[in-house]
Backbone:
């Protein structure tokens, strides 16, 4: 036994490093889900999915991010940015749908990545989902402050500084109202908030009515001269605008979480997905056309673009109605964002990848109080320290990274058999990693005079990988439920599109995400890798086998 102890330590060390690619067993994930949830009632139709999808998607993004896209990146051509963003969402949604019907477990992209690509990738997405949820609350709160300021403008009053913010320097503007909104929503969540279909329906109706009111009334006052030039920043600006307004599609991936409750997922899920995208994109295109037609793109207000457009044409009553409708929608969006993030921490803590404190749930309210308070404090700090543009860019990166990993996961699972084994010496994750790296280089090189010399060979390599995986690799496992079409072509195109959009964001946002990931890596390698549920299971197996 004395001689076996170093061997035990060595074997445990090896298994800890192997945990970077160790995958959570699908069977165990499904068993845990069955133990935690009752059987789902398959009662939803395509109409139900569309209703839920529109409610989850249409809202905060179009109210707070469209102004920046129109003024600084795409001009009136922002409508094309919305179309391209919708295309990226459609591809990723098909991949989400295949995952959610084959592996109907909670955790969304985090759980999918853990099952398909391994522990480190799963943790990476779980950590960066913070960029979609917690930071989304910060961005929406900043937008809330901007529209609240518009309410004062309606009455020709100047908003006090506790609303407009105290300018510390040319970069930092401390707006106390933004963290105040987050704190109020956090307190509400601590006492427990149960889902209410009537509440969700009411907020959805407010969102859509506010947007339709702006489109219909604003269309009467459109000046066609404001659409010339239509693409003031060229097509490069359209793609940059696409990355800026991607915030407007945050929440779209929640549509696919209903797959286990759909009557006929093969038929209704695609209809629901496409229907949601058509409605949301149509509303967004309408808003961008009217907004850039009422106000010249260089004069679009960045803080409250919709309400300020009516103020510019002396329709203050209309600006007031839009502002009030927007404030209602943004408050609900802040609440929902703060509601989602602690649940991601909760799932990661249950798997041992995050601190145990985040897995604690209050027995009375069934709320993860510590995770909720932590999320509220974190979101409040970001709402103070970063501006709306910086926040929305980070949200877009977090969402697109999740989309990219889900697309990659679909390809990997298709090339593995039912036992999770891929019968090739060089396995698909290697090709996917190479594809992602090449796509990143392709996106980074755009806009330079010498870029064509790099992008052409990159494009050839990308096509070569697609052709190889399509025609020279046999799929081992094809789902019997919903199937993403044209695998691996569609998921690979999704990886390319998502990566390209990310690379169009400003370099400062990419640096922030890199720093955020590095910070999380310290937590993972210092805590998660040692306390992972799978790591403990394998440690026990190693110890038992050696002791025998």
Residues:
């Amino acid at each position: 036994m004395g001689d076996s102890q170093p061997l035990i330590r060595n074997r445990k060390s090896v298994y800890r490093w192997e945990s970077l690619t160790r995958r959570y067993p699908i069977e165990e994930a499904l068993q845990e889900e069955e133990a935690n949830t009752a059987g789902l009632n398959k009662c939803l139709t395509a109409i139900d999915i569309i209703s839920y999808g529109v409610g989850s998607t249409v809202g905060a993004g179009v109210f707070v991010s469209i102004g920046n896209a129109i003024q600084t990146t795409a001009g009136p051509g922002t409508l094309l940015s919305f179309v391209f963003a919708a295309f990226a969402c459609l591809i990723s949604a098909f991949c989400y749908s295949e995952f959610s019907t084959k592996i109907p477990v909670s955790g969304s992209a985090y759980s999918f990545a853990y099952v398909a690509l391994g522990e480190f990738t799963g943790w990476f997405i779980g950590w960066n989902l913070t960029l979609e949820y917690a930071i989304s609350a910060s961005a929406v709160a900043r937008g809330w402050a901007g529209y609240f300021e518009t309410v004062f403008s309606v009455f020709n009053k100047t908003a006090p500084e506790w609303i407009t913010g105290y300018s510390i320097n040319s970069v930092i503007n401390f707006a106390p109202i933004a963290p105040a909104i987050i704190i109020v929503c956090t307190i509400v969540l601590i006492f427990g908030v149960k889902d209410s279909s009537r509440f969700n329906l009411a907020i959805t109706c407010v969102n859509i009515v506010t947007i339709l009111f702006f489109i219909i009334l604003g269309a009467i006052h459109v000046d066609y001269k404001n659409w010339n030039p239509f693409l003031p920043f060229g097509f490069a600006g359209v793609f940059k605008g696409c990355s800026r307004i991607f915030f407007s599609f945050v929440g779209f991936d929640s549509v696919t979480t209903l797959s286990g409750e759909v009557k006929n997922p093969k038929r209704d899920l695609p209809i629901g997905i496409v229907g949601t995208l058509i409605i949301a994109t149509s509303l967004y295109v309408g808003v961008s056309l009217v907004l850039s037609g009422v106000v010249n793109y260089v004069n679009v207000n960045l803080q409250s673009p919709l309400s300020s457009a009516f103020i510019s044409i002396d329709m203050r009553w209309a600006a007031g109605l839009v502002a009030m409708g927007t404030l209602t929608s943004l408050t609900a969006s802040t609440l929902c964002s703060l509601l989602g993030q602690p649940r991601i921490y909760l799932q990661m803590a249950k798997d041992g990848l995050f601190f145990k404190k985040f897995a604690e749930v209050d027995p009375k309210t069934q709320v993860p109080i510590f995770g909720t308070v932590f999320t509220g404090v974190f979101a409040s700090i970001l709402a103070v320290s970063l501006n709306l543009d910086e926040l929305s860019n980070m949200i877009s990166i977090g969402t697109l990274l999740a989309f990219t990993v889900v697309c990659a996961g679909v390809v990997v699972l298709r090339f593995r058999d039912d036992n999770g084994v891929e019968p090739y010496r060089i396995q698909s994750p290697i090709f996917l990693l190479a594809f992602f790296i090449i796509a990143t280089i392709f996106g980074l090189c755009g806009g330079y005079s010498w870029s064509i010399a790099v992008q052409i060979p990159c494009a050839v390599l990308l096509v070569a990988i697609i052709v190889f995986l399509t025609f020279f690799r046999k799929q081992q496992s094809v789902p019997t439920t919903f199937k993403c079409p044209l695998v691996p072509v569609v998921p690979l195109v999704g990886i390319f599109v998502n990566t390209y959009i990310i690379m169009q964001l400003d370099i400062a946002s990419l640096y922030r995400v890199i720093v955020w990931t590095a910070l999380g890596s310290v937590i993972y390698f210092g805590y998660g890798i040692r306390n992972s549920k799978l790591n403990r299971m394998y440690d026990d197996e190693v110890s038992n086998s050696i002791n025998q």
Remarks:
- The longest helix spans residues 316-350.
- The first strand starts at residue 166 and ends at 167.
- The chain has a mean pLDDT of 82.
- DSSP finds 23 helices and two strands in the chain.
